[in-house]
Amino acid sequence: MSERAARKETANVVWSGSWVAERLGVELVGNGKPDGDRELRDLLGLALRRNPKRAHLLVSNVLGKHVPQKPSVVYGVGFELGRRVRELLGDAEARRAVVLGYAETATGLGHAVADGLGVAPYLHSTRRPVEGVERAGGFEESHSHATSHLLLPEDPNLLAGECGPADADTDAYADAPLVLVDDEFSTGNTVLNTIRALHERYPRSRYVVVALVDMRSPADHGRLTEFAAEIGARVDLVARSSGTVTLPEGVLEKGQALVTAHEGAGSAGSRAAVEQGRRPCTRVDLQWPVGVPDGGRHGFTPAHRAALEPVLPAMAARIAASLGGARRVLILGFEELMYAPLRLGAALEDHTDAEVRYSTTTRSPVLAVDDPGYAIRSRLVFPAHDNPADGPGDRYAYNVAGAGFDAVVVTVDSTADTPELHAPDGLLAQLAAHTDHVLLAIVPSYVPSGLPSYVSERQDPPMLPEPLRGPAFSSYAPDEVGWLLQDLSDTELEAPTEEREEAIQSGGAHYAESLPVEYQPSAQYQSLFKAALDLSAARVARAVGTVTETVLAERGARPVLVSLARAGTPVGVLMRRWARHRHGLDLPHYAVSIVRGRGIDANALRWLAAHHDPADVVFVDGWTGKGAITRELSAALDGFGGFNSEIAVLADPGGCVRTYGTREDFLIPSACLNSTVSGLISRTVLRSDLVGPDDFHGAKFYRELADTDVSGHFLDTVADHFDEVVDAVDAETKELLAADRAPTWEGWAAVERISEEYGIHDVNLVKPGVGETTRVLLRRVPWKILAKRGAGADLEHIRLLAEQRGVPVEEVDELPYTCVGLIHPKYTRGATGADGRAVESK
After folding, report:
1. What is the rounded average pLDDT of the residues 621-638?
2. Do 732 and 550 meet the contact criterion of CB atoms below 8 Å apart?
3. What residues are paired with 600 via a beta bridge?
4. What tens digit of pLDDT does each residue of 71-126 get?
5. What is the pLDDT confidence band of residue 454, given thresholds at 50, 70 and 90?
6. Radius of gyration of the chain (CA)
7. For residue 69, what is the DSSP state?
8. CA-to-CA distance for 123 and 159, rounded, in angstroms?
9. CA dist 633 to 220, 617, 628, Å?
10. In angstroms, rounded to a whole number, what is the distance separating the alpha carbons of residues 677 and 797?
11. Alpha helices by DSSP H, 294-421
């Protein structure tokens, strides 16, 4: 169908953004061309979602994610954009280009763009770590529901532009253009941050940004030119259509109110078990070609493309033979697996008279409203079925229920063909309630089999330095801990707390790229610390003994303690002291950096693997809050064989680990202060201009604070109680070793509930437990503190800090923690404390 005919056909159809536009005043404005507004409306509808950064969602009609569309249309749009890029670059440069697509929405679009270029290798970012594949980088997508992206090419030189065929001149492939593909270019933050990060590691002279729609505001338009000048490269933009979104004042608050009012009603219903016995699932044997990747997670080369193209018709014919008399068919892909089902769907259009549509499932929660003027008419909810690294959670299929499909072909990779997929509340059962025929087609998950033959000989990475030790780095004795860090003491890294908070929440910076100004405790606060230490030292000693004895019983008599800097380091030192005091063991102890959203220091792991058996390594932290670092470590270690991702912690109030000293949420005095109770070491730093690919993460040694250092006093005071708690430790250890200590993740559930109840809608801004609440008051911009009613001495320092910062403490009942710190949502320097300008208090 021609574009003119398509417009004529839809001329009298209600625009799928009118419901949101009428209620919120959101408008799509074309780029000034004749019929520009209509062009945007043909491409985009509007919906609402729970997101503290952006209430509205631009819903593409041609992306194939939320709205079922003809697969030939979806593929054709991407392919045509690839042809435009080829014209822009010219044939010679197009032959050298590399295409990078964004997970999850643009994985299929990016692949189609690469096909349009014709000869370009393709890679897409992923949120699924894969064991054995080293990360070639990663980045954050600040406005997304799931923010962290990994780059996992099988060929480590792919992003460096050195991936030509075996007989090619490798110099001809240097400085290859990089083509970045996303579904929309809104502010430009994500793409520019990606280019900035990749340019540090793989500099090149030319980038091309590709999007279905360019929706930048006038204020954002000049940033691309300025950015290109800043990095000294050419950056072009290719988009199918362009315009802007106009947002009236208060749109976030109004949008969230609408979501609250409509959520849970009608088509936005919750997940439920469904009886599917009368409609069994039919498996289709695709006979996917051996050696052809399921997509671009690890790279997809022109050779892979040449192997796939001739077998697509036969695979489509196998699907067609299983459809029976179906007249309206949906090919339903799976999250990042968009390209394989898209190509199968396009080929199926040629093998059946049935009407074929294509869309995929997604991680993103969006409100569904059954109204013709709203882009998401229905929502199916089902559990994740690929054992995701970030733990269990809901997934969604939009505009499938009630759409009249009499057959749905579910296409997933083999990693996702799990019991959860087939469960009574799983995706297949949910679909069976809305269609007569469910088919399941499995694409084998690609397992990288080694480096391609055309990769130039790799050099061994340079030798890593020995660990830093006191007194040259930290106030700890040299045998207490070795820091697998680089010394950044002479680098200016501190920024005012308010500036850091605004940069972090706006997506302009990651929290690990700077340091807060070190808190200098008042005399009153120092007195509180000493009183708290005297009160809780025996309690801490008991927890230290219990967790150490549990580790020795379960992980062998000679574990290698590796604490997560810096909160884990005092605990690691105390565990080492207990093992020596009680058993005469001299355990190795190191401190490494782990950064939420960026992972653990890979070079530190490389050093540990070279000097110790990874199976002996026991990771140590101070306490758990909601379990974010627990999940981060598990995901980060997927690519490193031999390490056990379980963390041993002093206190586990969040129910996130199985090795702990206690699950009570009590005051651990080392949480009361910053560097002055942690060996005078700052929190760790990860910034591309300071930490190269072969460097350890960084930190500072605050030598100038030696007069106020209580690190040794804290350790000695706790260790002085070791003898008196031995009997209690033995009894508790025996009980724990016989108990079911499986993580309950109660903390995560509580944080999600608090986030929704207080209108924050971002679990990263909810910090549960005494330790995390203290960090909020010392390092971030707090909004309010929730305290369990009747909590006593454990909260005296919290109340003092809150008073000093003008932050209200709200006593509540049935709080699973002693206290919870809430970071100010949507922080700007004009919205501090609890003035309610960003979020209305409940």
Report:
1. 79
2. no
3. 594
4. 999 999 999 999 999 999 998 899 899 999 998 899 999 999 999 998 899 999 98
5. very low
6. 28
7. B
8. 9
9. 36, 13, 9
10. 15
11. 302-308, 312-321, 339-349
Beta-sheet pairing, 599-600 with 589-595: antiparallel
pLDDT the model gives residue 836: 29
Assigned token pair, 8 = 């004529």
Average pLDDT score over residue span 409-418: 93
Per-residue tokens: 41 = 């409306």
Arithmetic mean of pLDDT over the chain: 83
Question: Which of 125, 185, 805, 753 shows the shortest CA–CA distance to 501?
Answer: 805
**Cβ atoms of residues 423 and 429 within 8 Å:** yes
- β partners of residue 124: 101
813 Cβ partners below 8 Å, 6+ apart?
Answer: 788, 789
**DSSP H or E run through 255:** helix 251-262
* Residue 213 β-bridge partners: 184, 241
Q: How far apart are the first and last CA of the chain?
A: 53
Q: How far is residue 569's CA from residue 620's CA, in Å, rounded to a whole number?
A: 8
Residue with tokens 């536009």: 21
| DSSP letter (8 states) at residue 461 | P
Residue 782 dihedral angles phi and psi, to the nearest 5° = -75, 150
Q: How many residues does the chain have?
A: 842
Task: Write the burial class of residue 463 (CB in 10 Å: 0-12 exposed, 13-18 middle, 19+ buried).
Answer: exposed
Half-sphere exposure for 766 (CA within 13 Å, toward CB): 24
Neighbour-count burial for 243-274, b at 16+ CB within 10 Å, e otherwise: bbbebeeebbebbbbbbeebbeeebbeeeeeb
Q: Are 479 and 486 in contact (CB under 8 A)?
A: no
- Compute the distance between CA of residue 431 and CA of residue 425 in angstroms, rounded to an integer: 10
Residue with tokens 């972090």: 504
Residue 546 structure tokens? 């219990």
pLDDT tier, 695 (very low <50, low <70, confident <90, very high otherwise):
confident
The string over 371-395, giving b where at least 16 C-beta atoms fall within 10 Å of a residue's C-beta and e elsewhere, is bebbbbbbbbbbbbbbebbbbeeeb
State percent of the chain over pLDDT 90: 42
Distance between CA 487 and CA 495 in Å, rounded?
Answer: 18
Answer yes or no: pTM beyond 0.85: no
Q: Is the pLDDT confidence value at 770 over 90?
A: no
169 against 591, higher pLDDT: 591
CA distances from 514 to 91, 155, 500 (A): 43, 32, 8
DSSP code for 159: T
Strand, helix or coil for residue 563: strand
Bridging pattern class, strands 438-443 and 407-413: parallel
Which of 484, 493, 498 has the alpha carbon at shortest distance from 702? 493
pLDDT tens digits, residue range 36-62?
788 899 999 999 987 666 778 899 999
CB 357 within 8 A of CB 400: no
Contact 134, 450 (CB under 8 A): no
